[in-house]
Design brief:
By secondary structure, this protein is mostly helical. It has one domain. Helix content is 64%, strand content 10%. It has 4 helices and 2 strands, in the order E-E-H-H-H-H. It has a two-stranded antiparallel ribbon. The protein is elongated, with a radius of gyration of 18 Å.
Length: 105
């Protein structure tokens, strides 16, 4: 996600790129929140990949390519946190169901 602001000393805008989600932050979120965040990140990743492809076809440079890796890293961490929760669950049927759901993400 990109936030554009104007610099305090100049009138030119500057970009502030966010960071990837930490696993410790994701562990505090509910299953539903993680699922919603997953789809927000998926949408962001698709938008960035489309933008990169479009710019590459026009022989232009993709700005801030590290954004894609941050989104991918956050998505990987969501899967990791959900897998941790599935492993800890004492009910084997529920664990198997949760793992199936995680693998479909």
């Amino acid at each position: 996600m990109q936030i554009t602001r104007k610099s305090f000393w100049t009138s030119t805008p500057w970009s502030c790129i966010g960071r990837s989600w930490k696993a410790s932050e994701l562990r505090l979120k509910s299953w539903d929140d993680l699922q919603k965040l997953w789809y927000v990140l998926l949408k962001e990743k698709n938008m960035l990949m489309s933008q990169r492809q479009m710019l590459n076809s026009e022989n232009m440079r993709f700005p801030n390519p590290e954004r894609i890796s941050k989104v991918k890293k956050s998505m990987c961490r969501i899967k990791h946190v959900l897998t941790e929760r599935a492993i800890v669950d004492p009910d084997p049927r529920r664990t198997a169901e949760m793992k199936r759901m995680i693998n479909t993400l």
